[in-house]
Structure formats: C-alpha cells, structure tokens
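Quick one: co-fold with nicotinamide-adenine-dinucleotide.
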Amino acid sequence: MKTRAAVLWDRNKDWSVEEIELDPPKEGEVLVAIGGSGLCHSDEHVVTGDLPTGLPVVGGHEGAGIIEEVGPGVTGLAPGDRVIFSFVPSCGQCRACASGMGSICELGMYMREGRQISDHTARHHARGQDLGLMCLLGTFAERTVVHQASCVKVEDDLPADVACLLGCGVITGWGSVAYAGEARVGDVVVVVGIGGIGINAVQAAVALGAEYVVAVDPVAFKRNKALEFGASHAVASSQEAAELVTELTRGRMAQVCVNTMGVGEGAQIGASLGLVGKRGRVVVTNLHPAAETQVTMSALDLTTYEKQVRGSLFGSSNPRADIPRMLELYRSGKLKLEELVTRTYSLDEVNVGYDDMRNGRNLRGVITF
Ligand SMILES: NC(=O)c1ccc[n+]([C@@H]2O[C@H](COP(=O)([O-])OP(=O)(O)OC[C@H]3O[C@@H](n4cnc5c(N)ncnc54)[C@H](O)[C@@H]3O)[C@@H](O)[C@H]2O)c1
Ligand SMILES: [Zn+2]
Ligand SMILES: [Zn+2]
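Sure, here it is.
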C-alpha cells in the first residue's frame, strides 16, 4: 500500500515528507495506523549523525496507534488493538527480558540496522530504495509495519497523541531517576536539561518524595515548566546548581544527578559528578555524539567518595510492565501527560516542530494524525 512518511535522505537535511510504498506485515509483524508521534531529540541525533544509522531512514520512535492488520505468527495482538511502541523492542523472552532488564532486550541488536527483526529486510520503500526505520519503528508516518516485540497493548481510554509519550520520554525520564538513579524519599535530585526527557525525570523525583528537585536549563521557559511540574528550584547552569546544592545540603550534595541535555558533552559528566555527594549517582541518559570519546571528571571521586556514573537506556525500565504501570499512575492523577505537550503538528510540519525543539520552544512537540 501507499502511505506518507518523513524520510531522512542525507545528514543535516530536512525530513522529506513523501509518499512511500509499504509492504504487508510478514511473520511476527503488524501494520499500525499511527495516532501520535512525539518529537524526541534522538531523531535529531540521526539528522546530525551523532547517532550513526544507515540512510535513508523513516524517522520517529515515540509513538502509539491502532493495529490494522497482523501477519502470520502474531500472538496477543489483533486488528483494532491500541498499542504504544516500545522504542527498544522488548520480546519478554530473551535472557535480558526474563531477567527484568527489558530496556536492553537482546532484539535491540537490530536497532542500528533498522530492518525488520523477522528477516532483516525492509517493508518500507521509496524512490526505488529500501528505507530503514528509526528504532525499528518509523513513527513519523501515517502507517508503519513493525515487529510484535515493539508493541505494548494498552487500553483505549487515552488518545494516541498523548499515549505516544509513554513510548519514550515519560518512561525514559521517570526510569532514569527511579530505576537507574535509584532515588528514594528524602533524596536531593538534580536534572540537567528540561526537555521531554528531563521534565519526566522531574516528575519522578517529585513523586518519589525528593527533598529538593533542582532543574537546570539555560532556557527560562523550561525552568518555569520545571517549577510547574514540582521542581523546588530551577537554575540556568550547572555552576549555579553547584552553588545552590552546596548551600541547600550544607555541602553533602545530591544523591542523584540525571543528564538529559539535548546533546551530551564530555565535560558535563565531571560537572554532574561535582553535583552529587558520597555514593551519588550520575545517570547519563542524554546521548553523546558517537564521535565523542573524551569525558572529563575526577576519577579520584569515584573511589574516595564512591561516586558512580551510570548509563541508562529507556529509563532502565521494563517496558511491558512499566508502560501499563505508568498509565495507571496517569489515571490516578500522579503522572501528568497532557501538560507535557506544548504544541501539536501535522506530519507535514515535522521540520517546524524540530525547529521549535532546537530553539527551546517546546517541552514536547507531538505530531498528530
Ligand atoms: N537514554 C535514552 O534511552 C534516551 C531516550 C530518549 C532520549 N534520549 C536523549 O536524551 C536527551 C534529551 O532528549 P529530549 O528529547 O528531552 O531533548 P530536548 O531537546 O527536548 O531537551 C533538551 C534540553 O536540554 C537543555 N540544555 C541544553 N544544553 C544544556 C546545558 N548545558 N545545561 C542544561 N540544559 C541544557 C535544552 O535547553 C533543552 O531544554 C537527548 O540527548 C536524547 O537523544 C535518551
Ligand atoms: Zn526518544
Ligand atoms: Zn527480550
């Protein structure tokens, strides 16, 4: 069938919204009509090449929609079902999934290739070429074909343009604090970078009962949003945060600092390590450019203060458990979703949306269909 999608043909170029050819689902695959797709910074890393993937690629990985057709061998999903995509496939059966580490499911090994998990070929084609899929999904499209391991079935009480946020930003930000950061009641939590990920790190820290939640962002609008979401303080730089946290904690510093800047910087690891105290955790959630291999930090602090630097993918969550669980928190009023969306766009406006993201105008932009 024909559908419309945003395709990236060259680095540092606009997304091209065009008609593409979509094959029917094969073994273990489903055809999904997308209802909403968030504009996460990770797709921007594909544009710049900081996240090296093959091109051309259909963008988008924070999505939700309705199943229209299932291929042979699909179990537990049927036409009409609502799904939220897990941006890392989460099969539920591999050793990682079975050990409660669904965010690093072994099927993640196929993400960089961007071809279908089932047979490593493409269902998406345009201009006579096969198209890769961002995170094996390609949610900047009216329809897509994905593997069932990428789909988490949910109830139908939430519109897809809000539900899509659980496909990346909400779970990633929340889990970075709750799981990777192991924040507990009474902790001091710093969040560096208040975008679609960082704001959910703020939400988690507030919900977990942190003593202070310090948001750091150079953009005033973001700092105001962080305060609206319950942060106790919002400052413009890590230097300001260091002075503030020193004063608030009488030098003991924070237990957790989550790095959620748009583009990670090697020097920020050291700056964030300076914000945490003894046995404090720096969670590296933002993506650093693949070409960047140097970080600056006091390695002596790792030993003498038992500080830790931890990477975290998809909030170190278990998507099959955590997506439904976070929906429950939303229903009971403990998680904000609608408030995360600053502006919605049509698929044709995807480049406008990314321009707004680059200029700090959006907490989260969402494409609606
Ligand atoms: N680990 C994962 O699983 C995962 C998942 C999704 C996104 N990400 C990554 O997380 C990062 C954040 O994504 P997003 O969609 O929230 O991005 P975003 O662009 O919406 O937000 C980034 C924020 O960082 C702020 N910022 C920039 N430089 C800063 C600095 N020096 N100090 C403090 N704040 C600064 C910006 O003003 C902006 O508000 C990106 O690198 C993205 O690729 C990681
Ligand atoms: Zn994302
Ligand atoms: Zn798995």
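If it helps, Residues 90-91, 93-94, 96-97, 105-107 surround zinc ion (ligand 3) (CB under 6 Å).
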